[in-house]
Amino acid sequence: MQLLPVCKKVIAVEFDPRMIAELTKRVQETEFKTRLQIIHGDVMKVDLPYFDVCVANIPYQISSPLTFKLLTHRPFYRAAVLMFQEEFAQRLVAKPGSANWCRLSLNTQLLARCDHVMKVGKANFRPPPKVESAVVRIEPRNPPPPINFMEWDGLVRICFSRPHKTLRASFNNKNVLQMIMKNYSTFCAMTNVKPEDRIAPDAMLKLVLEVLDKTELGAQRASKMTQDHFLTLLSEFNAQNIHFN
Question: Which of 78, 43, 89, 35 is closest to 62 using CA atoms?
Fold first, then answer.
């Protein structure tokens, strides 16, 4: 109701029919009723139409999936201003080396600029919730970085599986090597690499460690690494036909 007087159009996505009925009743008594479109459904399942700005106080249990749905939404929009649980918001805007820097921080900031807008205390809600809240502004990077996000996330997932261990320790792991070999086999099949020309598991581990030495990142820990460190690492792995999705 606060947005209607200042917007050309407001699209509201709502799951609860009682909320839809109440909103419909309220807007019918105003001059702005033609500006409102209501979509009845689960925001995680509906196809969102074109929009310029997203404003939402969301169910906190869908914070992560909704954030990434918005980050991958096309066409690009100007910004999303969202209220999250404070702990989640702190991870979104965290900087490398801070206590909250994590895979979520890195992945989100690869695709968007994230800024803390304000803290919202429990007393601002009735009834008061058990957690503190915060508002974050998310501005998608347009154009997005020219990388395969699924592969990027595969690399980041390995590095942050043990964020306080060195990368050499994280990659010198049986399960990680098996995953890399599986991806390498797929790559070889797609590019018609002959079996006799393929890299053996022992040689693959050596190659992985050589990449870490070449980039001088083997002794680094994911909890301290910047976005540029991960971009350099992914580029060098790909140059050696090592992939993560």
Answer: 43
Asked if residues 52 and 77 have their Cβ atoms less than 8 Å apart, the reply is yes
Domains of the chain: 4-140 (3.40.50.150), 149-239 (1.10.8.480)
Q: Is the peptide bond before 140 cis (omega within 30 degrees of 0)?
A: no
Could you tell me the two tokens for 41?
């459904």
- For residues 68 and 43, is the Cβ–Cβ distance under 8 A? no
Contacts of 28 (CB under 8 A, 6+ apart): none
- Runs of H (alpha helix) within 112-173: 149-159, 167-171
For residues 59-96, one letter each, b for 16 or more C-beta atoms within 10 angstroms of the residue's C-beta and e for the rest, the string is eeeebbebbbebbebeeebebbbbbbbbebbbbbbbeb
Strands lying side by side in the sheet with 112-120:
53-57, 79-85, 133-140, 112-120
Q: Minimal CA–CA distance to 140: which of 118, 116, 117, 114?
A: 114
Q: Are strands 133-140 and 112-120 parallel, antiparallel or unpaired?
A: antiparallel
| pLDDT tens track for 50-95 | 999 999 999 999 999 999 999 999 999 999 999 999 999 999 999 9
Entry field: residues in the chain? 245
pLDDT confidence tier of residue 245, bands split at 50, 70 and 90: confident
